[in-house]
Amino acid sequence: MNEKFNDFCRKIIKDKNILFDPDLSRTVFTEHSNDKYKNEIRLLLVTVESGYPKIIDGSDDIDSLLFSLSKRLTEENYIIEKIAASMIKLLICLVKGMDSFPVKKTAVLEVDEINRQSETWICGRCSRENSFELDFCEKCGKEFNPPL
């Protein structure tokens, strides 16, 4: 996620309990956003409505949270893993009251290994499943840039 968006979230989320109430979260973000960060806020609200903050609050293993929730967010919303992981990192920081996310290299390697085992990717624009042999979506033509 954009560092400016992360700072914006940290400023307006003074109490993590805001994240446990989807209606309150939507209200707070709508009042403070001034039509900025529409896509980022939409994705953050998807995580709030799906109950991710409660899951995060109930666990201390942030590496496994990052891995499992990023995978779930990717699969349920057809977004690329990098964006999902960034959103989950931000959400973990907001719920746990951390300034930054401590990343262990092993967690990153596990996510990369699972991505390599997959034989297909899902287009974020049209939701079509495509083979990794192609570097573009067969349906809409969107380029695929795999994470390094």
Q: Any overview of this molecule?
A:
This protein has 148 residues and is mostly helical. The chain folds into 2 domains: 3-117, no CATH class; 119-148. The chain is 57% helix and 4% strand. The chain has 7 helices and 2 strands. A two-stranded antiparallel sheet has the order 1-2. A hairpin with a 6-residue loop joins strand 1 (120-122) and strand 2 (129-131). Helix 2 runs antiparallel to helix 3, helix 5 packs across helix 6 and helix 5 (62-77) runs parallel beside helix 7 (105-117). The chain is globular. The chain starts with a helix and ends in a 17-residue tail after the last strand.
Furnish the topology, listing elements before pairings.
Layout: H1 3-12, H2 22-33, H3 38-49, H4 52-57, H5 62-77, H6 81-96, H7 105-117, E1 120-122, E2 129-131
Antiparallel strand pairs: 1-2
Alpha carbon gyration radius: 16 Å
Q: What string gives the helices and strands in order?
A: HHHHHHHEE
Distance between the first and last residues' Cα? 17 Å
- What is the count of structural domains? 2
Largest sheet: 2 strands, antiparallel
Which strand-content bin applies to the residues? Answer: under 5%
Short recap of the structure:
This protein is mainly alpha-helical and about 150 residues long.
